[in-house]
Amino acid sequence: MKKAAEIGESLFELLYLASAFTIGMVLLLTSEAPGIRMLAGSMALVLVAGDAFHLIPRIVAVKHGSAAMQKALGRGRQIASISMTLFYLFLWHIGHRVALLPANEGWTLTVYSLALVRIALCFASGNGWTAASPSFGWSIARNIPFLMLGGIVAIWYFLHRNEMVGLGHMYIAIIISFLCYLPVVVFSLKYPKIGMLMLPKSLMYLWMLVMCLSL
């Protein structure tokens, strides 16, 4: 039963990567430089690249075991953490361009500051990315600025939802993705099965990309 569940999860992850990559390529190939679709397509490919470093070792680990893939899994989580941060920077600028609103310099500075703090924390050795038991404290620390970043982007999309042609529900996808992600951050070391919440989180990212197809 456990093996079947792992295989099913691996198939889902492959389908997720393939779907996100396909959407990204469609956006890029149908864009007019330097159009919004090009920005959205680049965002999709950054997401796919980062998640691939995390998910492909997970898929390989189904056959060879997590211990054999420990370092690759750790580095993959680190790279995915950085790519998710960049994803929200893209999303911030896409929202402003779709709503035809100038980027507020103060809020944009805050968004970039939170992203830089998050990325800097991801590079800190204290995280113990490749250790058998990564640091829980560092996990919480690096996700605080990420939560704040996502919160600001979600609130901005909510406040301007009526101007967001095609992206009016983006704030919902962002909120649900974080509601799935945060329990994994807090409880997955003690309760590994809660990691299954990453599946609906991935679906929310696909929904965000699908919404961008309407741009």
TrEMBL record:
Q: Where are the transmembrane segments?
A: 12-30, 36-56, 77-95, 107-128, 140-159, 171-191
Q: Which UniProt keywords apply?
A: Membrane, Transmembrane, Transmembrane helix
Q: Which domain of life is it from?
A: Bacteria
What is the protein's given name? Uncharacterized protein
Query: In which organism is this protein found?
Result: Parasphaerochaeta coccoides (strain ATCC BAA-1237 / DSM 17374 / SPN1)
